Inverse folding.
DNA sequence: TTCGTATGAATGAACG
DNA sequence: CGTTCATTCATACGAA
């Protein structure tokens, strides 16, 4: 995704250039309303329409965008969840170990679930191939798209709804497209 | 610097062994190619076969699996749509509320419009035409969610569609909620 | 200044 | 497909 998104936060007419406020921060009234919705009303899952509405109302208390409201709810939910999860394994023996609130540096014992292909029918291999000994650096003299004479179209389940009916007819154009991005600078 | 470039991507030689980091992160070349396909080529709906092909090609730029490509396209499509959804919606009353969207000042948003899905189409005047079975005109008073103070602490998921789709209801109650925090004093 | 924490923002992954 | 979850990056701010 574009990663230049979080820079200019659209001042609605009042601009201060020097990187003073790059990042939105809720004004006290905004924060009060948001918290009121979340905690008092238990309003935690606003729909996009409701996000707009909230945002619209909050605009009278300061500059704000839809995505700010969106992220605010997302973050609050996520962090509440996270805290609960970390409280669960507090040693019941004795000493309180209040290590929550840290930025994930504390090694928690959350089991990593590499559930693969659970629902997404692309049924790939699922094998985590370790990186090769040396990293394949992006070389300028990248050879043309290597002939995939192998049967790469073999183990695909094709259960995706995207099945347009054809079975690889557009391979040529895709190949060309991929090749056209060998070393263009657009990152 | 107009880009903060989420570091974490591809430590340049040795990806972490299994266990430390599970989440795939596109390397810059991979990102470049993917974005090129999506934006420049307008390639948004890869078939499973094409996903494999793309993935195979991208493997020379770092570890990657089919599902990563799959998710990448899914997420980009979803978020672009979500953005459009949040930034439209001028109140039907006719307020002079404009410049909702804003992040596009210096953004390299070269999103080439092309065949959307099969759900909504845009008229020449910018109006949105539902292409499904029926219309739904008035979006004024629709008691969507019954939250007025107390019994809301259940598990309200407020999934916008109540059957016929189209959220946008709940204006009344939300407004009330917003108004109720006009001048209360709380933390 | 440096460090730690709180939090906005981004995005990969997954659910229904 | 739209929405939600999980994890991480980035940054503002206060304490040491």
């Amino acid at each position: 995704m574009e990663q230049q998104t979080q820079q200019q936060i659209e001042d609605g007419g009042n601009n201060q250039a020097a990187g003073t406020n790059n990042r939105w921060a809720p004004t006290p009234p905004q924060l009060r309303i948001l918290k009121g919705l979340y905690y008092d009303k238990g309003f935690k899952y606003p729909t996009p329409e409701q996000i707009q509405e909230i945002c619209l109302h909050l605009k009278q208390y300061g500059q704000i965008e839809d995505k700010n409201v969106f992220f605010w709810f997302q973050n609050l939910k996520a962090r509440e969840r996270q805290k609960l999860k970390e409280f669960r394994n507090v040693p019941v023996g004795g000493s309180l170990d209040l290590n929550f609130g840290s930025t994930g540096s504390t090694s928690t014992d959350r089991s990593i679930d590499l559930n693969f292909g659970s629902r997404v029918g692309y049924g790939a291999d699922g094998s985590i191939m370790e990186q090769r000994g040396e990293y394949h650096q992006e070389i300028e003299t990248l050879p043309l798209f290597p002939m995939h004479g192998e049967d790469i179209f073999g183990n695909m389940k094709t259960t995706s709804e995207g099945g347009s009916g054809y079975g690889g007819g557009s391979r040529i154009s895709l190949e060309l497209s991929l090749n056209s991005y060998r070393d263009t600078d657009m990152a």
In short: The mean pLDDT of chain B is 62. Chain B is about 30% helix and 5% strand. Residues 132-187 of chain B form one domain.
